[in-house]
């Protein structure tokens, strides 16, 4: 019998006759962290779902998946229901969709315990409190009666982990558990997962597209491409001697630095934010009690000049998104002013002013109407123009915008579902470019992309700064991206700018302790040359 906790042998999977996984072999021992990495579509998540037997209709699997010698591919639904949660726990990528918004966090952690054990509700509550305390959410500070929407992204992910470990499963599967998290929260979640493996002796199968995330966490790494395992090995050994070209390509894309052209030194302000203040009312605690407010943006001031590329970084809840909405004129200020191109910005700003200020969102699919073709999607900003182009001129503008972002003019006649994530983000950039704005706001524009696609989009942005004389505000929680794509960086904390300086100066010699903590928490790739020298 195998000494491995989980053993996958010659796993083949097809959906409606389309081969997805091909002869996948991997294993996880108790107390071991195995990372599966690769781009979207490589088969990482389907491999994990095969272990859980959470597969779509029309799926046919062959091969073997055993958990402590128990075959899972032949297990019945009732047998798998006993194993899920009890012996196998799973942490999903998006905690907000993994949690029930109508149930308290206490009830959701207790549900796992009540389903799989004969314990009383009082005992289940006690065990739920222990699980939440273990993941850093003690009940004296985070009451079990809270709902998911009352927690931050990192706190919600901790609740999902508490649900997964409530019964101390032998195997924990984490599917991109830190993709949408800030660097400090990401570091905390990764450290938590490492501690759980050490404390409980469970095996951890971690799925990620980011090699930097697992470089100092995983014991071994499996690299997948097009449904196949192309390389596997101990973490340091794999980084030291990458055998497969695809592994090397992933590593190079993770460490990719763009060739950003020199910014022109022009004292021509495009955007002036002066003492901006934004308050949100809190719920009343009593019928006739005074209204209290939360200050999301507290007296922020900065100027973005023509040709300048500024980065805005900070953790969730620091006020980045609130400030962005105010700059776009989507929310009013309670104090201070925002001016773009010499005119006041606000909810009632003129369409012509909006035309010069465009935005590229984090989720391009969510910001597109799936019923419209690309031609209609990217020409949406035309309604801001007093005399929008018609006929052949309109077609030329569409073709010009698509070519500028590396797409083909014929793509204008396709629907958005026909494109990959990277292509959708290119289309989102084309939509922002089509009316030739002077300033673009990139709001987490590459955070959901694979490392190789991310590298392509960053190269595209760098190219567009020269060809279209772009100025932009680049908002991101990924410090490695901000470092390569900006000239200047603003660091936000608790609604205030705590540091403002040239990018390299801020990264090499941060003046504020908060900036230093952000840089320290950011995952970094190992120095391959140093590893090679040590082995030699």
Description:
This protein has 536 residues and is of the alpha/beta class. The protein has a domain at 1-79 and 173-180 and 209-254: Rossmann fold (3-Layer(aba) Sandwich), CATH 3.40.50. The chain is 35% helix and 24% strand. The protein has 20 helices and 20 strands. It has helices at residues 44-52, 77-83, 95-98, 105-116, 121-134, 153-165, 183-200, 211-214, 235-240, 245-254, 320-327, 351-355, 374-378, 391-404, 421-433, 451-467, 479-485, 503-508, 513-521, 528-535, and strands spanning 6-15, 18-28, 33-37, 59-67, 70-71, 88-91, 171-175, 203-208, 220-225, 228-234, 269-281, 293-305, 309-313, 335-340, 343-344, 357-360, 439-443, 471-475, 488-493, 496-502. A six-stranded mixed β-sheet has the order 6-7-8-3-9-10, sandwiched between helices. It has a six-stranded mixed β-sheet with strand order 16-17-18-13-19-20, sandwiched between helices. Strands 2-1-4-5 form a four-stranded antiparallel β-sheet, with helices on one face. Helix 7 links the parallel strand 7 (171-175) and strand 8 (203-208). Helix 4 packs across helix 5 (121-134), helix 14 (391-404) crosses helix 15 (421-433) and helix 15 (421-433) packs parallel to helix 16 (451-467). It is globular and about 70 Å long.
């Amino acid at each position: 019998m195998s000494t491995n906790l989980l053993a996958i042998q010659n796993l083949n999977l097809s959906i409606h006759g389309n081969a997805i996984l091909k002869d996948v072999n991997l294993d996880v021992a108790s107390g071991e962290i195995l990372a599966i990495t690769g781009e979207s579509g490589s088969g990482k998540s389907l491999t994990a779902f095969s272990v859980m037997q959470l597969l779509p209709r029309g799926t046919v699997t062959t091969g073997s998946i055993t958990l402590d010698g128990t075959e899972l591919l032949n297990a019945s639904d009732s047998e798998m229901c006993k194993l899920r949660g009890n012996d196998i726990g799973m942490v999903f990528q998006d905690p907000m969709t993994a949690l029930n918004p109508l149930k308290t966090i206490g009830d959701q952690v207790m549900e796992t315990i009540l389903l799989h054990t004969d314990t009383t509700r009082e005992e289940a509550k006690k065990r739920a409190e222990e699980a939440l305390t273990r993941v850093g959410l003690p009940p004296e500070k985070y009451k079990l009666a809270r709902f998911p929407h009352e927690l931050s992204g990192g706190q919600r992910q901790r609740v999902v982990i508490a649900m997964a470990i409530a019964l101390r499963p032998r195997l924990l599967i984490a599917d991109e558990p830190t993709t949408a998290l800030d660097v400090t929260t990401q570091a905390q979640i990764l450290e938590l997962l490492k501690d759980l493996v050490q404390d409980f002796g469970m095996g951890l199968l971690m799925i990620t597209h980011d090699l930097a995330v697992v470089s100092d966490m995983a014991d071994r790494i499996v690299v997948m491409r097009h449904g196949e395992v192309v390389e596997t090995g101990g973490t340091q050994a794999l980084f030291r001697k990458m055998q497969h070209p695809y592994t090397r390509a992933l590593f190079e894309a993770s460490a990719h630095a763009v060739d950003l052209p020199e910014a022109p030194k022009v004292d021509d302000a495009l955007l002036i934010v002066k003492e901006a203040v934004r308050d949100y009312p809190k719920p009343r605690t009593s019928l006739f009690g005074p209204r209290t407010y939360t200050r999301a943006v507290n007296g922020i001031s900065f100027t973005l000049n023509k040709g300048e590329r500024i980065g805005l970084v900070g953790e969730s809840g620091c006020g980045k998104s609130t400030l962005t909405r105010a700059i776009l004129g989507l929310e009013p200020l309670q104090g201070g002013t925002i001016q773009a191109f010499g005119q006041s910005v606000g909810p009632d700003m003129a369409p012509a002013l909006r035309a010069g200020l465009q935005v590229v969102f984090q989720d391009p699919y969510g910001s597109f109407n799936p019923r419209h073709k690309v031609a209609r999607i990217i020409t949406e900003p035309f309604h801001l123009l007093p005399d929008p182009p018609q006929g052949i001129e309109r077609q030329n503008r569409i073709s010009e915008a698509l070519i500028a972002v590396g797409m083909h003019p014929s793509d204008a006649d396709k629907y958005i579902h026909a494109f990959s994530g990277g292509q959708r983000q290119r289309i989102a950039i084309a939509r922002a470019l089509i009316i030739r704005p002077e300033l673009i706001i990139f709001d987490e524009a590459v955070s959901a992309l694979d490392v190789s696609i991310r590298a392509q989009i960053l190269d595209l942005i760098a190219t567009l700064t020269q060809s279209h004389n772009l100025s932009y505000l680049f908002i991101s929680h990924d410090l490695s991206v901000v470092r390569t794509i900006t000239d200047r960086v603003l660091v936000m904390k608790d609604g205030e700018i705590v540091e403002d300086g040239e990018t390299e100066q801020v990264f090499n010699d941060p003046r504020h302790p908060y900036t230093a903590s952000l840089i320290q928490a950011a995952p970094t790739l190992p120095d391959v040359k140093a590893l090679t020298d040590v082995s030699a």
